[in-house]
Amino acid sequence: MKKVIIFCITLVLLVSCKFGENPKKGNETEENFTVSRELRTIQGVVEDGKGKKIAYAAVKLYLDEGDCMSAYTDTDGSFQFKVDELRIKDQSHFEIVYKGYAENLLSIRNYDDSKPIVLSKKGKVIPAADYHVFYESIKSCANQ
After folding, report:
1. SS3 of 1, please?
2. The pTM is what?
3. What is the CA angle 85-87-93, rounded to 5?
4. How far apart are CA 37 and CA 84, in angstroms?
């Protein structure tokens, strides 16, 4: 009987030690501290040349070759991205498309979120069919 009690106590101790371990999760390293990731919020407003907000414009953020994010302006013409700072490169840029307006390419380095992005009807205007193709195609971009 004494052996059974000792066995049970040993078993309970082993199980409690196993569940008391703190396994590494997500961004923890061998030194057992968490590496924080800085998320940058990039937001803006898309307008026409007269200051009217453009709803449902397709906004593609190219971060790097093969790395992009997508957003669509809401009814107030605004959009937002939350991006890991490490993903933003020198060549990162926006592509904004809306039917009846020329495509707008804008470097993220030259972007000022306090100023609206103004779409123009000058240049090669995007037809409705091309806008819809672009609108659907950017859904494949990773929004992480």
Report:
1. coil
2. 0.71
3. 100
4. 7
Is residue 113 within 8 A of residue 59, CB to CB? The reply is: no
Cβ atoms within 10 Å, residue 63 = 21
Sorted by where each begins, the domain ranges of the chain are 39-140
109: Cα within 13 Å, side-chain hemisphere: 4
In words, the CATH class of domain 39-140 is mainly beta
CA distance 144 to 68: 10
DSSP letters, 42-56, are EEEEEE-TTS-B-TT
Cα(95)–Cα(72) distance, rounded to whole angstroms?
Answer: 11
24-75 residue pLDDT tens: 444 444 455 455 567 889 999 999 999 999 999 999 999 988 889 999 999 9
